[in-house]
## 1
Amino acid sequence: MPELELPPPQRLCASAELEERGKAVSFDVIQWREPVRAFALRFEGRVVAYLNRCAHVPTEMDWQEGEFLDGSKRYIMCSIHGAAYEPLTGHCVMGPCTRGRLTRIDVSERDGQVYWHPTRDTQPAFQD
């Protein structure tokens, strides 16, 4: 059986659009053949990206479009049940998601742009 050829890294946004502990950039992916929203944000100088699905109940987490961090800007917070996640690892640190974690999407920055990297399980929702 031939090896699946992965799409190239997908441009997400300009690096400057992701301010430290600011609003996230949302984007669409296909995860296991289902459409899912994802998001990327900058925390402690690093860009991280996850599926927009709480580990407790698979529902979107943002309070408002692109707003994922709690009031202290220390945790990614699920707006539905209050589960809190460590931004750099996606591990649940508080709330009903005990020992759960967010599903990470690999990202990179180069030449002032942010890219996300498709995998066998996570593909672009839209092909050029």
## 2
Amino acid sequence: MDRFVDQVHFDDCKISRGDADKELKQHTKHLNKLRDKISENIRTYYAGTDASLPLSGWYQAIAASILFSGGAERTSAQHVAGKVTTPDAELYAIRSAIVNVTSHDDCTDIFIFTDSMASAHRAVNPSIHSG
């Protein structure tokens, strides 16, 4: 990553307490426009990722990703992540999306949509960390 730092960008949604509904609608509109633009190029892949941890300690976390290109779903994946923390499960979901995207030889650009910015930053951090 230290060689390609200029090729990775983060678009974090910061909602203030003032007019949260208005800001959320504006950010949703921005994301919809972004999705529409990137879905025009068949060689641009974009993925949505998420993880879910059970409320009870009896069950394991699930990590999921869904991959699109040209506005069409290409693949989806669900994985049992084990008994891990929420950030680690989110990181696993992001990793799953990246693995699926990079298996397509025609890919020129990758967009990952996630609700865990901390895990997104960890996904491109080359230092030693959990996950």
## 3
Amino acid sequence: MAGAAIETERDQIAARSSCENLAREVISSALATGIREFCICTGKRDAPLILLLKKIEGVRCYYWSEERSSAFFALGRIRVTKCPVAVITTSGSAAAELLPAAMEAHYTGLPLLMMTADRPRKMRGTGAPQAVEQVGLFSHYTHFEQDMESGETCALERWGLRGPAHLNVCFEEPKAEVYDGVGLSPAMYKEAAPLTNHSLELSDFLHDKKHPLAIVSTLSVDTRDAVHQFLKRSGMTAYLEAVSGLREKSDLQGQRTFKLTGEYDAILRIGGVPTARIWRDLEEHPMPTFCLSEQPFSGLSWMKTEAADITKTLNECDVCQFSETVVPDLLIEEKIRSLPLAEPSLVRALSEVIPKQSLVYLGNSMPIREWDRYATSEDRGFEVAASRGVNGIDGQLSTFLGFCSPKSENWAIVGDLTALYDLVAPWIFEQMDTCPITIVIINNGGGKIFSHHFPDSEMQCRHSHRFEYWAKMWNFDYLCWHSVPETLPLAKMPRVIELIPDEEQTVSFWKSS
């Protein structure tokens, strides 16, 4: 009986084409890493991968018309599912569209698998259509790369899952065939390698400090409690960015500061590279600094760091006691009252009406800075997210849609240029689980983040575009606000809210800051 089974298996393998066998080798390796979701950009060269996936139970496929947005959507899915996600493209320039997301995944440690179909190796350097040099395309931004043809073994098990990987899969001319998914199913996600405990180093750093400042930026959900308890035990003054998940914690408000200059004698950074200006100022004005992050990036030219286990480090660190008293900044409240239509004031008003327990995704540029500084301090149970690896404005709406969940309200707050950069993102909406979605576009007519330094309109990309017809194109409801209502209208469908600040009040607000 065993011999007959072996013969049957051999017959099945022999009956499969070289394209199908190569597709099975690649897909089975991807499934073995725990990948269950695939973002697919259809083409002819990647057809073997797509046709095979359609036959496998237990996987979910999202079909995209555009590669760049699909890869950013995958980053959102990785952060929600806490599992690797793959994006599949055809050959040629389609593969190059994945580079921005690969860069973001590298700096945020996200396990994005890029599977690029390619023409056979013999076609390289010929100038034949879609025969570009795809091997090495992502340069520094892949933690593992393999170029494969039929008959070769995939070595994806060597991928450490702490950043992106690239499989370049060289197919002969694909033909319309019947593929089978026999014997293929997703495996459990294999956890990435453990990180290092730096508790002794942190204890040594803090033991002689008198007035340290903790700057807490992006934290994974799993690390937040350890950071929260460490700050409570130490009493250390803390600047809490919204993406830390700790900004509104009531028992930390007495330690929370917005003042980033003063008599601090050291800085402890916990989490990702901060948005706060003080961190960039350290480049020219160094002071004793300790980085505690799950990513090996300091954000400073003069400082090297390595990835650390935040929870173990803080739980086992000898805690020093600091008794700092933080005085609230009453000037901010006065400005918000007197200039209610200024952009920061509108962000405050938004934070007070967005339903509790909502996902709030902040696009890069002004929204993340304004939320950090001016959003309500009431603990409304928000899950605040952002993409802070490269700090780019591309792919923000797609990443947000990857985050969205049916379990909560889902709000994105982005600038106008950020929205213009990702207009194709709602393509995926009809394939998603039904989610309550609101996209707030703060339309101030350009890139005002540069206006303090570069008053020229060309530097600010000034424009007069509105987003009503973009919303209608995707069958989203559309609202235009010049102020934020005290109560939100009921959302019957996904909606776009175009929020237009008063330019005069906004200029006055910033001048008095």
